[in-house]
Amino acid sequence: MLTPAFHFNILKPYMKIFNESVNIMHAKWQLLASEGSARLDMFEHISLMTLDSLQKCVFSFDSHCQEKPSEYIAAILELSALVTKRHQQILLYIDFLYYLTPDGQRFRRACRLVHDFTDAVIQERRRTLPSQGVDDFLQAKAKSKTLDFIDVLLLSKDEDGKKLSDEDIRAEADTFMFEGHDTTASGLSWVLYHLAKHPEYQERCRQEVQELLKDREPKEIEWDDLAQLPFLTMCIKESLRQHPPVPAVSRCCTQDIVLPDGRVIPKGIICLISVFGTHHNPAVWPDPEVYDPFRFDPKNIKERSPLAFIPFSAGPRNCIGQAFAMAEMKVVLGLTLLRFRVLPDHTEPRRKPELVLRAEGGLWLRVEPLS
């Protein structure tokens, strides 16, 4: 039902939003670096930028969260931290006990705030829809290509023609917000880290973007440009291999699975699949700790199993938003390298797996504006 929300006709108009959101972030960087160079925590800046662009894509709502604090954004960040913390305390898996703790109460408060925000958007959208011919109204809007995710969810029907309830729509919108900002921010932060460490690859990416946009003013990356950035795409993929934003996924076995040594994982068991482990398996990836974008040269891909590289998982329950995420990452990375030189910081980041793969104490890099 939700797959149409990610059809490229729906995604194309979001390119404008990606360009605008990254321009706001870059204006902040220019200001901070006006004295020469700025030392920045990439996670902090890029998370706000991806949240900003997602709020616009999901809700058509501009919270100006990159320029001023937003209650909604603060609640989302708090919920992510609380979920991770709760994971590590087995007794707090019991809801009754958890909600007696200060963290549980903070969780409830933040949850209520996020839900109230989404509910208000849904109600407002319903209120503005004409009472007759809602479907015709939305279909007309779809033709003008200005649908956001809430519109797509309002349009969704199952095979029996049944629509999603407001609660269903809220759950999906909340999932988009959570799944779509931190993961992309992680992917972008780590690829900038790798390119800071490998200036020769950074320069090659920059030349590719400069060549693409040389006769264009303003410098904006459009939908049809995405296929014209092969080396930049290889650099993103190799970073997603080394630092997958989601380090593990869980799956419920739908049948008995016989392992090579004859042991059996019984049907109904939930397995944790290590994306990080798969991407660092030396039997599949020689010298897995070496950052080498040429692993993703088309001629090298043919020899590998399609399941060797699974940053978006795989199969029928893979990431519904992977085209959205890759498009956003290419726009942000392309424009960043066009305007800034990214340099490594003196502190080497330590990987910190939470809901997404972060860096302990932030991922710090230096940026220098290019003339």
TrEMBL record:
The keyword Endoplasmic reticulum applies. It holds the Pfam family p450. GO terms for cellular component: endoplasmic reticulum membrane. It is found in: Endoplasmic reticulum membrane; Microsome membrane. Its cofactor is heme. It comes from the Eukaryota. One of its GO terms (molecular function) is iron ion binding. Coiled coil: none annotated. Heme binds at C319. Belongs to the cytochrome P450 family. Keywords: Endoplasmic reticulum, Heme, Iron, Membrane, Metal-binding, Microsome, Monooxygenase, Oxidoreductase. InterPro entries: Cyt_P450, Cyt_P450_CS, Cyt_P450_E_grp-I, Cyt_P450_sf, Cytochrome_P450_Monoox. Signal peptide: none annotated. This is cDNA FLJ50565, highly similar to Cytochrome P450 4F3.
